[in-house]
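Supplementary notes for students who missed Thursday's class. We covered one full example, reproduced here. Read the sequence, then the structure, then the short commentary at the end.
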Amino acid sequence: MQTMRVEISHLLPNPHNPRARFSEAGIRELAGSIERYGLLSPLVVRRVGQDAFELIAGERRLRALKLLGRTSADCVVLDGGDLQCRLVALIENLEREDLHYLEEAGAYRQILIEHGLTQEELARRLGRSPSAIANRLRLLKLSPEVLELLSQSQNLTERHARALLRLSDPLRQFEAAEQAEREHMSVRRLEALVEQTLKSPPPRHNVTRLFRDSRMFVNAVIKTVRELNELGIRASSRVERLPDRIEITVTLPENPRKF
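Structure (token representation):
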């Protein structure tokens, strides 16, 4: 491991960055801090070519430096393999700024799948309890529509998401989540709504009602295909909008292999 000055134009983005969303206001605030006090913590990178480096940790700092018009940055160059770099990136995000709980869960899942770790091994490497890892991963059992709503919400927390797990029916999940978001429900109110829902008779699914917004389902399919590609499985989708229907074709390899 060494520290060196690297041209920003030689830095490549981290394709496995667990953080998918960045606050523009937060980047501007960080840029102001760097302008006043300098870059207190160097970026973490690894060499991928003679003059090319892949960013491992420090995406927010890099964006702030670009905003300031800087052309180079101090970097710590790691010698680790893929797994070590993935773990460093995840730990960096967990420690420096609150990572969205679903982004964290998604990062756990990707590392487990791509590197064949057990939940216990991952917990040990991250310094977390196995139950904490398991609880985050359970959230990914919610329907894709609910996960999308939660990821965009400014009101619904991880505790709200855990309350929704009690509902096994995807439509009931989404309706409860949508109502909680619309009414800015507390966790206690949502838990009461879930309890009431569980006591009511199972709904008779009406196809027209279920597909009241087809965009939600089209986006869910496209997002799933994108996630498969991120995991190394070559998948593709084609959406064709016809006068009376929407046709979605998903193509997967018969024997999925990473590429």
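Commentary. The chain has four domains: 2-98, 100-141, 142-207, 214-251. Residues 100-141 form one domain. If anything here is unclear, bring it to office hours.
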